[in-house]
Amino acid sequence: MSRLEAKKPSLCKTEPLTSERVRSTLSVLKGIIASCYGPSGRLKQLHNGLGGCVCTTSQSSALLRNLSVTHPILKVLTSSVQNHVCCFSDCGLFTAILCCNLIENIQRIGLTPTTAIKLNKYLLGLSISYLKSEACSCRIPVDFRSTHTFLNLVHSILTSKPACMLTRKEIDHIGALILKAFLLTIPESAEERMVLGKSIIVPLKGQQVTDSTVLPGLLIEASEVQLRRLLPTQKSSTLRVALFCASLSGDFSNAGEGTLVVHYQVSLENAVLEQLLNLGRQLVSDHVDLVLCQKVIHPSLKQFLSEHQIIAIDRVGVTLMEPLSKVTGATPIGSLYPIVSTTYGSVKDVRSARFGSKYFFHLLPNEATICSLLLCSRNDTAWEELKLTCQTAMHVLQLTIKEPWVLLGGGCVETHLAAYIRHKVHNEAEAIVRDDGCSQAELHIATEAFCSALESAAVSLEHDGGEILIDMKYGHFWSCPADSASVGNWPDTLSRCGCGLYNSQEELSWSVLRSTYHPFAPQTCLPQAASGSVSNLTVDSFTAKLSGLQVAVETANLILDLSYVIEDKN
Amino acid sequence: MASQGSVTAALRVAEVLETIANRCVGPEGGLVLCTKPTGEVLLSRDGGCLLEALHLEHPLARMIVACVSSHLKKTGDGAKTFIIFLCHLLRGLHAIGEKEKDSFTSEDIQSHERHWKNCCQWKSISRALLRFQTQTLGCIVDQHLSRHYLSAFSSSAEGRTLCRRSLELLLEPYFCGRVGRNNHRFISQLMCDYVFKCMACESGIEVFEFLDNCFVELNVGVTGLPVSESRIVDGLVLPRDFSVYCPADGGIRMVIVTEILQPLFSSSSSEFVLDSETQFQASQSWIMDRTKTVMNHLRSHNVKLLLSSVKQPDLVTYCARLNSISVVECLSSEEVSLVQRITGLSPCVLPELASQCHIADSALVRFCKPLIVRSGRYAHLGLVSTCAFVPHCVVLCGPVLGLVQQHESAFHGAFKMLRQLFTDLDLNCMIQTKERRNPSPLADSSNRESSHSPKTGKYQDVVAKNKDKLETQTRLEVYPRLGASDTELITCKLWSAHKETSIDPSQTNEIPKRLSPEKSRIVDNCEVFLENNPTGNPTAEDTRTEMSFKHLQVADNPGEGYTLPVTYKSPDTCPSQAHCSSAVPAGCVLPVGGHFEILMHFYLLNYAKQCRQSDDAVISMLIANALLGVPKILYKPKKGKDSFPHIYTRALRALQTRQPIVSGQSGFESVAGKYQLLTSVLQCLMKILTIDLIINVKRQPQKTGDQESEDEL
């Protein structure tokens, strides 16, 4: 019986952003997120009082997944960031910080939502078109002849996740592994539509990070006993593989909806078993060497197969089915009876492998784009964090193939972009106002809010009380240690800008970022030599950052546009 | 517990709703964020959605919400305007009621009785409103407003075609009110592109009906991407991946199945007896053979795509893979019917597939491939259409699900609006008059009765005969009004049939009558003023209503004795019957920005001035003034020359001098939609006025019917 209960009336709040409670919760959320940002970000330990494991992290995906926010506005913000991370893996924290900053700034300046939204949108368009233009000096084209840029990208991602607890040497090791794994997923023969392969992360906890390794092909975990039975193959040629997605346990699933009457003497078990053994006989006569089954293989069939020197591996699981079918080239077989020889696949070799305390079957492919990344870490929490980081890095590399550019990282893009927008608006205010139908004063206020939101996002990278400076030539980000922050000795204390492209030995002048500086035109057009000469650049994913910027502004506009919050109290 | 239902109570409720609607209406309005008990967050600017999310408790409020939702179901637009307009109407009525009250206090009546009296008064107003809405309003729109109509069509040699510019002008203001300020322009452009891609030819406006019905299946929502990534894709996108995908090109045929292709051991309500093990094995292998045969048969007819509404067993997918047939499983019934509507294909049945004959039910597909939008994989099919709709899908992107849903529902509403716009709207002003010429048997009998009655001016006899027992309580008087003729009957307008209103403090009950002669084309209108002096008890009131009902019946009949020459002549309000085209033609639009409201306001005022009946005048004044509420709010944030008083006086001056009104905003809105809104609001108001008592029942609801209707909103 359905429950009939009067619904409680909802709670309706007007102009939610003006309430003090919303503002304070928003700033608390911003505080949490901003303190995680960057290589020197602070870690957050999340634990549920009701149980479950403790999670130590500084990544947006783990942080927001575990954080429970109650206010609907924060829900919009966090789910927007989470959705972004789902699509791009990277730049989640940046998106969240920028969004919070924008909301706070616009609230402070008190423009009407319509004007603020319109101008934000305009400024976003300005930023996007600049970042996509040839004149942009923050964007470096990826050189596919060397792994230089890719390595820089992976390094930047690894260093920005302090919760992985990696040493410098470990970062180099893992970085190289990620790149290697990524390269193994690229098919050799380029067709019209390139389909990237897959690298599967295999957990191995309790080992040194430097024990991690990349293997071509697949690793299937097995017990020691199973592996001991595996005899060294006599064949020199490739092994024939049969891959089953149907159950080989002799169950009977297609009985239909009606009743089935079985006579007393009839044993269905025997009947099914006989069918299974028939299948076994066929496999033997087809010279199959390896039988893989997604589900369970009947012990009798297993016995039969091993008597005929056929390796049988069952309970592979549905997640491995697609990679297995790719590695072996076999078609998953869904029935017991009509097996066509074209469904068989092949592997080069099957070996037993032992890593740490775990045993694996290692399927070596003839030619495939599947590889296994055996990831080691000392403890569970660090491993979870490392796994997420590796996935992020892998995804970002894939995105970079589609759009072969990277953006300068380390806060330099943000400060440079802010300087560019300030300059542009300062010079072309009249033309902009004419098209947009708002006053010049409104434009300047909104620009200031937008640019300082970008700059505050960059400032969030600094957690140790240092001073943040901007140079007046390139508009890059410079961090000055806390103890030596006097104006006179800046050229000596500063070494390199945030991304590492420029050093302080050039004739540069600086200004404190928080103070207002006179709008200047940051140097556009990246000198080609500059990017080549510097070995260790901090770079970000172009696609992820651009989308993060868009999502942040769009979400902020969305939240600014709210005039009511209606909470269903049922 | 019971509370009195009155205009005051309704006004209080409506005012609360109005303050909410005020902030969200028009281009300056904001978004509403609704949370569901499940924790989902929904963003909306849709008034219907907003009202539903409030879960209102007050019974009057729930009634208003129900009225709004039924209006939305028809037109897909105008929920917020509905509330604002209703509130203004109630405010106007309340002001009239206050005046009345002053007169009551002088008399020494108990409050309880006063309430009853109020109720009667509201009820009669409600009836007068009904008449005004059904008969007068349509004609005012038809005669005066039609001068200002613009058409969304551009006429060409092939007939009516829809040009891109006019569609843009229609959609932009619509999305301005329905989508967040951030995206409305982009979304309206996207929709414009979409409409033109879906239309087989420029005059193919029947596509809107199709889109309105099927849009839910024609869009795919993707979260995590900026809204600007939204795009239109050719063909149909199913929101699930292929179970089996085999690349194929050229000459792909497709079949739909709604059952499992593998034969089962036993069907429901049948019995399968297994005698031996060999029999079991034989039947197993028969099943496998059979499945294999079916799939081979499909392949031999070049079928390379199998759409299934059910999950197929492993064996079927395996056989499909062997035969390089792509399979998409678990299609919803809506998706199946959409594919059927586009391709004209009907699902295959197993016997047909198993027999070796030709497969009739297969359709050609241009391509079938997976569509990858970031992390999601979808089945993308290039269906070949057999109807006016060229299959295209919209991929709607947004950072959060709530926004994607908002855009989806805005798209859907826009299709509904366009569909409404491109169909003729019957104003039913003339039609009703004609229908009334055929008296019902009941009316016939009373007709005979009334013809027995001696002459005009002897109404009381008629009534007395009709309702004998009333004679003692009722005294009927026929007033000679306006002194236009020495008979007591005055003709009024051609179309208005009955008006009944009590606005007189001395509780006069007016029953005007329209009597159409059998032969002459001129319809005369008689007004009979019926004064009733009740003795002050409720039963008297009750019988009075009954009696006036009788009067209406009498008035319905064409009676020879009542025909009199027309004394009131006005070229504006008395056109010949042939001149009347009682419909808003398809595609009629007016500029946005309260244009409709100001025009209607002007003509209603004019009508009120010319109208010699005080009740009619009062009602049209009431509606005219309430109409201004909407533009007042729309122009609220504007200053200087664009503020409401300036716009209003400019428009009135232009109307008086018969010059075109200059509109500051570009964009059109549908006349039919606006007119329907007006009538819906009036109907809602009538419903409110007829309620006299609200009884609160504290018991479990008996059946779910009521709850379901709430959920439908």
From TrEMBL, chain A:
- Which InterPro entries does the record cross-reference, listed alphabetically? Cpn60/GroEL/TCP-1, GroEL-like_apical_dom_sf, GROEL-like_equatorial_sf, MKKS, TCP-1-like_intermed_sf
- GO biological process assignments: artery smooth muscle contraction; brain morphogenesis; cartilage development; cerebral cortex development; chaperone-mediated protein complex assembly; cilium assembly; detection of mechanical stimulus involved in sensory perception of sound; face development
Question: Per the record's keyword annotation, is Cytoplasm included, yes or no?
Answer: yes
The principal localisation class reads cytoplasm
Example GO molecular function term?
Answer: unfolded protein binding
Question: What does this protein's UniProt record list under function?
Answer: Probable molecular chaperone that assists the folding of proteins upon ATP hydrolysis. Plays a role in the assembly of BBSome, a complex involved in ciliogenesis regulating transports vesicles to the cilia. May play a role in protein processing in limb, cardiac and reproductive system development. May play a role in cytokinesis.
Q: Which family does it belong to?
A: Belongs to the TCP-1 chaperonin family.
Name the UniProt record assigns to this protein: Molecular chaperone MKKS
Automatic annotation (TrEMBL), chain B:
Q: Which GO terms describe its biological process?
A: chaperone-mediated protein complex assembly; cone retinal bipolar cell differentiation; intracellular protein localization; negative regulation of neuron apoptotic process; neuronal action potential; non-motile cilium assembly; photoreceptor cell differentiation; photoreceptor cell maintenance
Region: Disordered; residue ranges are: 436-464
Q: Which GO terms describe its molecular function?
A: RNA polymerase II-specific DNA-binding transcription factor binding
InterPro entries registered for this protein in UniProt: BBS10 (IPR042619), Cpn60/GroEL/TCP-1 (IPR002423), GroEL-like_apical_dom_sf (IPR027409), GROEL-like_equatorial_sf (IPR027413), TCP-1-like_intermed_sf (IPR027410)
Give the protein name, as stated in the record.
Bardet-Biedl syndrome 10
Q: Which gene is transcribed and translated to give this protein?
A: Bbs10
